[in-house]
Design brief:
β6 and β7 form a beta hairpin. The longest helix has 16 residues. Helix content is 33%, strand content 33%. The protein is of the alpha+beta class.
Length: 169
């Protein structure tokens, strides 16, 4: 029985978030991001970064986790103030990652809607996110009402890739 839960992350979720961060990058970006870059990703290092962020009382980043059964964290999202000065979109969804096994069940939608609610409560009525143009799950953002409004080149592992900005008003 699915008992989806979306809640604010705690320090004890850092390891699961690190593991999901690396696993979902490898599941989603194989063939897009260089293999050497994906192979070098470390769940331990990511967990350390998330632990530091979650422990920082000054952080304005909201981190959520998604569970399909109580205690079984299979996804996470992070959001907060927009980072590049796009005045029309003062909020930003920094990350939303869900293990492939947990996709297609509505948990991603629930996490995105919860992140949007937190952004609105923080005063960010409009918000955006950057998505790799070659991301095979890019249609998710469109299905959730995001409108592509800008793109830019970024470099990951020595490869130039295109990111698309999706916005919600």
């Amino acid at each position: 029985i699915l008992q989806m839960i979306v809640r604010k992350a705690t320090l004890s979720d850092a390891e699961a978030i690190g593991r999901i961060h690396v696993a979902s990058w490898r599941e989603t970006y194989t063939g897009i991001v260089p293999d050497e870059f994906l192979a070098a990703l470390s769940a331990e290092r990511r967990a350390e970064q998330w632990r530091a962020g979650l422990a920082n009382p000054e952080s304005r980043t909201i981190v959520l986790v998604g569970e399909i059964r109580p205690g079984d964290v299979v996804g996470f999202a992070a959001c907060g103030p927009e980072r590049e000065g796009l005045a029309a979109y003062p909020g930003e969804l920094y990350a939303i990652y869900l293990l492939k096994e947990a996709q297609g069940r509505g948990l991603g939608r629930a996490m995105l809607e919860t992140a949007a609610r937190h952004l609105a409560e923080a005063g960010h009525e409009a918000w955006m996110c950057w998505v790799l143009a070659d991301n095979p799950t890019r249609h998710f953002y469109e299905a959730m009402g995001g409108v592509a409004f800008q793109q830019k080149d970024i470099e990951i592992g020595g490869r130039t890739l295109v990111e698309v900005a999706y916005g919600w008003k």
